[in-house]
Amino acid sequence: MNFAFAALRSFVRQRRRVFIFGTLTALLHVLVLMWMGSQMGPRQAVHRDQERVAMVTLMLPQQSAPLHVVPPPPPPPPPPRATPKPRKAPKPVANPPPEVDVATRAPTFSEALADAMTRPGDGAVVGVPGDIGLPVETPPAIRDIVQVSAPAEPALPVYKMAPPPSANLLLNVDRVDADGTKWTGEAAIGWHRAADRYNVKVEIGISMLVTRVNLVVLTSDGTLGEAGLMPVKMTEKRRGRAETATHFNAADKKITFSAAQGSVALQPGAQDKASIPLQLAAIARGDPGQLKGEIAVQVAEDKGASVFRFIVVGQEQIETRMGTMQAWHLTRPPLPGSYNSRLDIWLSPEHDWYPVKISNLEASGAVTTQTVSKITLTEPGS
Question: Is the pTM of this model over 0.85?
Answer without folding.
Answer: no
